[in-house]
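Q: I have 251 residues here and want to know how they pack in 3D. Can you give me a structure?
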Amino acid sequence: MSDSRIPVAILGATGAVGQTFIRLLDGHPWFRVAEVAASERSAGKSYADATRWIEGNMPADVAALRVLPCDVASVKSAVVFSAMDAAVAGEMEPAFARAGRFVLSNAKNFRMDADVPLVIPEVNASHLALIARQRRERGWNGAIVTNANCASTTAAVAMAPLHERFGITKVFMMTMQAVSGAGYPGVPTLDILGNVIPYIGDEEPKIEREMQKMLGRLDGAAITASPSRRPSIFCISRSIFGSSSPMYGMT
């Protein structure tokens, strides 16, 4: 029986983010995971042998795949989901885009580039129009589209309709983020057990800049974020305080 779904590759497939991509795409109506790629340490092994699977059951069809090197010559899929670390994504993702691949990236490297869409479909799907500019100006046959920091994404979903209706002028957001956001193995147990770590490196500016870009019309608003790490495995809790333009008097 033929499978008409679009074959995709996962770059950085053995890590925590790569595994999340695989879980989300398992049984997807549009896409099927056809290739998995990772570091030289994992390349050549079966995915099952190369991966320390974190949650639930590994999809059997993916478990049997052979891990490929993370390079354009080895990966053939036209659509790639990138879970690569920022240390390598900055070089590798443009290489795939130049070669005509569409890169859907979780990495931070290109999120704030003016011609790269930073997209939440429910909030700013129209920003995908930037792809045409990106391909024209960079001379790429493919493109890079990014998602945002997890704290920025969920906050923007909540704030977008309020900003559309009331015109938000000021936002203060405090986040309490799970240890899974620090990657595997994450924060050392003795540092986080029964504790809250009140600072996450580079997180404040990421949240503040990304919300400005995604919401598009918040250029004049002051956004302040105070992120912390808490002892839970998954999920983010947050408190958001906002003010609107004087004509609405919303706080």
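Q: Anything worth noting?
A: Residues 150-166 form the longest helix (17 residues). The mean pLDDT is 87.
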